[in-house]
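Fold this sequence, please.
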Amino acid sequence: ELDAKVRATNAGVTGRLGARRELPGGVEASYSVENPVGVYDLASSTHRGRLSAAVAGGEAVLQVEGDASSQAYEGSYARDVQGGRAGVRLSRKDGALGYNVSYARDFDGVLDADAGVHVGIDEDGVYGKVRASR
């Protein structure tokens, strides 16, 4: 599957070309390249690659993004656990390491209210959100 998008402005033209393919074993691969407005050098364009696959009841994703001056890498895994969604993400961008481990669950059907919780930890610390309404 191929896709393309072109947009013209007074500052120049920007375009995006992408490809996506289902591979054997339920793996999906995608790649895209997009130039900044008015910049037509392929090395200055942003390249994005992504692989995703079903693994151990969840989804594993590897992503790479970059141009001639910087690159970013990210790996993640998420799956349903105890009625909620657990996930882990590791990344590297501009030399900085990032991580996030989280769990989110809605309590619809468990409580007589619209309620949920989301907790996690990342490079900035521990965070949480509780939501409830009637």
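Residues 4 and 17 are 4 Å apart (CA to CA). Strands lie at 2-9, 12-23, 27-34, 46-55, 58-66, 71-81, 84-93, 96-106, 114-122, 125-133.
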